[in-house]
Amino acid sequence: MNKIKMLAAAVVLSFCTSTTAFAQGNTLDIDSLISNNIDSTYKVKNADISIQQAQNSYNKAIKNTGSAGETSDDMTNDERYNIMITIANAPEEAKFSIYKYTNQKEVTKNEVKLSAYTEYNNVMNSKDALDLQQDKLNNAEEQYNSAKLKLNLGIITEADVKQTEVSYYDAKAQFNKAQRGYELEIMKLNKIFDIDVYVKYDVLLKDKFTESPYIRSYDDYVNDALKNRAEILNAQEYVNLKNFEFKIIKSVYPSKYDVMYGIGQYNVEQAKDALDMDNLTIPVEINGLYNNLQVKCKALDSKKDALALAQTNYNIALAKYKAGVMSKIDFDSQEISVKTAQNDLKSLQRDIWIAQLKLNLACDIGSDTSKITN
């Protein structure tokens, strides 16, 4: 019996240990996180519902064509028009809705993707800030402990120790603040994919940054956007739908002076105006994104220069430290300066990566569902 109990306890202990190891070994691969979870997000599911509803409307419209009847000479124009609308136009409207919502789903997926990558870069920046604050805390703790030792030796006063103590607790407060900030960014990322917000990660597998960005010409970006954007595609298809409706109207109300003829013509013109407006507003949007990317890229050189200067000062400090003419505490301060400059450069490179992603998505089908109106 005792052997059985011991075996059971060993199994339980083994299970608990392996479970803990698994929990502690969570790796965050942002690309896999997106590809594996994007279709189950709330926004994408809603887009699927809209597509299915449009498909149901199409099926219903096709079914209704069989019971709509046929036109005859003794019918009024209004009666013939209603039958033709049911038979011909209702399915076309439903087909347009399927097309529109299918495009909107792709925009929604890009919207989620952009949101996830943006938040992931916030996570990476927060992690760098946390690591930096850890180094600063370690340095402050070393200075505090050194000061207490010097006090015991009678080298410095209690006031000097108090000053290093204040610096230590300030560094500790800054570290705790950075830790909370990092944990908050992780929660925000988890929330995008409806993951438990308290799930934590020990390894951030990939970094998303651009060292030497390649920027095409402004015209190339605009041309792509005007071919690919959902607003353009939907607006073009909407013009086709209104032209189809107008043909039905003209077949029943051929006179240009008829009210229905005027309504049909007006609807076509309105659809064309909406398309023209999209052709005007999209280049303006691309211009803003293009300029934003260029501004960020121009700031790269200054960040690289700052890092080079910090690295030079670090190398000088390293030589002094090895020669015994610089304390480890002062040397560690130079190391922190290098890491600060590295973080500043890496943060900008991540911003550039996101700026490029925004521009590329804006030149594809899009990444902002609020811009889809039809």
TrEMBL record:
Residues 1-23 form the signal peptide. It is found in: Cell outer membrane. Gene3D superfamilies: Outer membrane efflux proteins (OEP). This is Outer membrane efflux protein. Its main location: membrane. GO terms for molecular function: efflux transmembrane transporter activity; porin activity. The keyword Iron does not apply. Residues 123-150 form a coiled coil. Keywords: Cell outer membrane, Coiled coil, Membrane, Signal, Transmembrane, Transmembrane beta strand. InterPro entries: TolC-like. GO terms for cellular component: cell outer membrane; efflux pump complex.
